[in-house]
Design goal:
alpha+beta, globular, 4 helices
Amino acid sequence: GLTPRERAEAGSVLSALGDERDFSALVEVPADEFTMGSDDSQWDDERPAHRVWVADFRIGAYPVTNAQYEEFVLATAHEPPPHWRGHHAPLELRNHPVVNVSWHDANAYCAWRGQQEGRLLRLPTEAEWEKAARGTDGRTWPWGNTFDAMKCNMNETGIGGTSPVGIFAAGRSPCEAFDLAGNVWEWTRSAWENEKQQRFDYPYRSDDGREDQSRTNVLHVVRGGSFIYDDDGVRCAYRFRVGPGARLDSVGFRVVSPGL
């Protein structure tokens, strides 16, 4: 019965007191085809809508939180996000998605956590991310085809910043992942362009070079919109790009483990 702003404030208090949820949980996304992109969009980088086969994988039920990233920073002496208090995340933000992390930082975290858990963890491809967000029925937002600002953290919701992960239960995606619309942009492993600054357009193909992980100095795709975006910007098909070294207060990430 609380408003999103009240839920966010309560969640931040819970963060300071100790949030005992398992933020490392992964949810299953079975192998299947799905519709990627949108023919109805005003943005040409989303066209044409097309069918893409994606093998099975698991994806983080939540974006990586500040508390999780703090474990990585303390274990490796990796540079912490600049808004932290030294090497520790602010208590009231421990259950918020980590931000001010570059694409390189996100990849380093995935590699470290994968070693801790004894399995491959990495950033999602752009196709994996979109499939997890919209399922196989081509929905516009993770919860369906009718927009509702009460189901995600975007500009109309009125929170005005990052929010504790998982407070929008009604906005979950078909695979039961939280926060795939709004809150923070999420890094993918997919390159937006090649070294000649030529954009990787649709149809999506995993073998055309966009998933070549040696491309570390080109723009990379981020997905999901953020707390400052409108209903168009938090659609499942909406695409944006950021330089891999950028650390922005609206960009975070989540992990993927290939296979089920």
